[in-house]
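Here's a chain:
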Amino acid sequence: MHFIVLATDYDGTLAHDGFVDDKTIAAVERLRNSGRRIVLVTGRHLPDLCKILPRLERFDRVIVENGGVLYRPETREEKPLCPPPNERFVNLLRERNIPFSAGRTIVATWEPHDGAVLAAIRDLGLDLQVIFNKGAVMVLPSGVNKGTGLQAALHELNVSYHNVVSVGDAENDLSFMRLSACSVAVANALSSLKEHADVVTEKPRGEGVTELIDHLLKDDLAVFDEKLARHSISLGERIPESPASTNGQGEKKQLLVSPRGSCVLIAGPSASGKSTAVAGILEELVQRSYQFCLIDPEGDYDGFTDALLFGSAKESPDAKAIFRALEFPKQSVVVNLLGVKVDDRAASFASLLPHIIDLRARSARPHWLIIDEAHHLLPSSWTPANAMVPQLLESTILITVHPEHVAKVALQSVDIVVAIGKTQIFRSFAEALEIEPPSATVAELKQGEAQVWFPKLQKDVVRVKAPRSTRERLRHVRQYAEGELSRDQSFYFRGRESKLNLRAQNLKTFLQLAEGVDDETWMFHLLKGDYSTWFESMIKDNELKRQAAEIEQDQNLSPRESRERIKQVVESRYTAPA
């Protein structure tokens, strides 16, 4: 369930001539029974609304006075969201015989008195705004409107605006409709409002709201996905085959993915640019206020400052703290599993899954679940309850070097495959699922490019310029300095006849073992270039590799001197272990 809140205007939308008919009330009840919430957003005063609409407890929150007051039906509490009407302004309206009504925060009148109201505001030099609503004229402090009122309601309900659908009919509804992920105008709405709405109902007023509710209950508004592209996430810029494939301005079109439901696999070899592309996607998620939960087995994203970090090279992440943070819609998290033993990381991740599913069922968040090193966390042996997989892998990004080692049940949920670097990703993915790979692919991609395949839709492969991070990010420092690399990624001091088998699972251990091994073992690996090879292939640090290779090639260095030089270049690029 993606859309969990319906925000609706009252007059001209939910109501006709001031009253809501029985069929519309029944639709509202059906929506509430589905587990969704409803916020009523109106320009009316609360006492007036209570008289014509009994049982306000049908609504989770009520915004009255055009955003000036928040009402909690369950407790019957009122919360002003701005100061009360200015006394000097009210007195001047009386002196000038301008008819009006005053609420707790709003002053309201009707056209043609808007000119006189504006004159009074100008004469007093007040910071007030005039809002129109089909002939009604409302005066509130600047910046207060139905949009700010809805924001206050969503804050109390811990709901993201990405999970809100709104419906209205008049000018003053535009502010809260713009705030929502899906904005709907009923058939009787003003033409100017329809122009800004994502969807226009076929029927007017309450019938139109009932029509909208029926769509929500049937497919969670999936029928309107193509109309909601403004909330999509970019997988990169399409690389045109010719100038004709660009738009009218000659700009390259973005390849977009729906923000709800899609499962994306990003795959490629080490150092191919996967992390850079993912960092670019993460920055877009932050910019668009999507909440994400990134599972990071190897500490690759410790430097991503727009999310709270849980776990470190020395400490396991605290599950309770993670999910307390995720209760806040704007707070994203990175879960660092470096402090968990390599063999226990898949189980540690599995223990988080039921909590993620529960949170998504309650709040439709986190909007995106991102699983790095998916072949380790969702290995071929992973056998979850079948009913859990679709819920878990909706709006999920899987990142891996080896798609063929990811659980088949997880690969079956993948809608989009993004291949980065020189690789046979599509073939490996297809063989794992026993399906045909795409026929038309680019054999070798340029730096920064990717190929995108939609295996379920049988569409042609699309070549794109992959997303890129717009800022530098500290990468791998904690992982490689103090974390635990896997057995395959570790360095082994073995010597000429493999009499030793000393494993260095990080740079700290590497330096400790380097000091302790005998000169013959040290020089055996040095002369073979094993140190620079490891720094390049597993540590993924080309500059460290270059400096180490210079030391390996200097035949005038003694074992002691080469040890010291290698130690210096490692510690110069990574924090020297204490």
In short: Residues 242-251 have pLDDT under 50 and may be disordered.
